[in-house]
Specification:
alpha/beta; 9-stranded mixed sheet; 9 helices; 31% helix; 18% strand
Length: 288
């Protein structure tokens, strides 16, 4: 296992990551997009519209980078559906996988409650499920998003996790089916936004809202009926950060990569990062 680098003290006790598969940066420019809860997080938090995906701009490789703190050259997951490293990982932990944000939490906070839910089963191969307290796969996919949200809300309310990743398979699913920026795409985004509102309410009901940081982002963007190209519509997704010790109304343009998400979560939770990670915490959005 790689050695670790000391990070800062905790900025918050809880982090909730809401991952929207295929959420394109251009999505926020369209007034047809009825997402009041997400827009409120942006208005009262910090946002970068140009977080760049790793190549290729597909799901598996980018979810891996989001959780593993490095690009595919290091973690070895290189395709949209990588179920194991296609290249030998540059290092592995005791579970035989490249160190993830979940595994370093488990190492440093053995009793921490953590969770991950997902609607696309490819997620389970890149998060290190052996290091997570609660793992749930919604086999019905992206369409019954309200039903899936019921489970998420119940889990947060009852368990108050230190770190929780709610990974939705939309708007990628409706993007492929109806087209990015289509009526079907925006209908899904409206439904997903209601789930974001319910997650926020769950944090309040659990009594942890004031000590939580919420991150909303995507693994890649898209255009027409697909993604995976070098088009900037495919390569960029928003990164929204809101909550305790986060600047309000702060729009920033500094370059951010997919693997900076894991580093930022580690920074918030005061974790020691593996020195093999290449992500850089987005420190400028925080108030100390």
């Amino acid at each position: 296992m790689a050695s670790l680098q000391m990070q800062a003290q905790k900025l918050a006790e809880h982090v909730i990551l809401i991952g929207l598969d295929g959420w394109a940066a251009h999505d926020l420019d369209n007034t047809r997009n009825n997402i009041p809860n997400i827009r409120s997080l942006i208005k009262n938090g910090s946002c970068n519209m140009h977080k760049r995906s790793v190549l290729p701009s597909d799901s598996g490789v980018n979810w891996a980078s989001m959780f593993m703190g490095v690009g595919p050259e290091m973690h070895g997951y290189t395709t949209w559906d990588s179920k194991k490293h296609d290249l030998p990982s540059s290092t592995t932990n005791k579970n035989g996988i490249f160190p993830t944000i979940f595994s370093i939490i488990r190492e440093q906070y053995p009793n921490a409650e953590t969770g991950c839910t997902f609607e696309w089963d490819g997620i389970k191969y890149v998060v290190d499920t052996l290091a997570i307290s609660h793992v749930h796969f919604f086999s019905e996919g992206w369409e019954p998003v309200e039903k899936n949200c019921d489970h998420i809300v119940k889990y947060i309310t009852e368990n108050k996790p230190m770190f929780y990743a709610a990974c939705f398979d939309g708007p990628d699913g409706p993007g492929h089916k109806y087209g990015w920026y289509s009526d079907g795409y925006y209908d899904y985004m409206s439904r997903a936004d209601k789930c974001v509102g319910r997650i926020i309410q769950a944090l309040k009901d659990a009594g942890i809202y004031d000590n939580t940081i919420i991150i909303v982002t995507g693994d890649h963007g898209g255009h027409d009926h697909g993604h995976g190209s070098l088009a900037m519509e495919d390569m960029e997704s928003p990164l929204v950060i809101f909550g305790k010790n986060v600047r309000s109304g702060y729009m920033y343009d500094s370059p951010i990569a997919q693997y900076d998400v894991a580093a930022t979560i580690a920074y918030i939770l005061g974790l020691k990062m593996p020195d093999v990670w290449r992500g850089i915490p987005v420190k400028q959005v925080f108030i100390r």
